[in-house]
Fold this protein.
Amino acid sequence: MDAQGLKVLVIDDSSTIRRTAETLLSKAGRNVATASDWFDSLAKIVDIKPDVIFINIMMLSSKGGLFDKAKGRIVGADDYLIKPFGRAELLDALEKYI
């Protein structure tokens, strides 16, 4: 899969995190949509059919412990970023799966 034009959906209740991810991913040539909650995200998943989804599985938390990462894996996450994340971390996570 070509990374340019990749459709990415960022789901987070924090407008700061959504804007940051959107800016970083857009500057890297990705097509980015954002959603602030589960309801909004469902419609966007159906409409845009994203290739990759970054989602805050805990909404309202920034969990970074080993147990938190394990919970992410249990619910089916392929990777786990800890907020706040930087450009390199975000793009590295994306590049692993394309």
User: Anything to note?
Assistant: The chain has a mean pLDDT of 84. The longest strand covers residues 7-11. DSSP finds four helices and three strands in the chain. The radius of gyration is 13 Å.
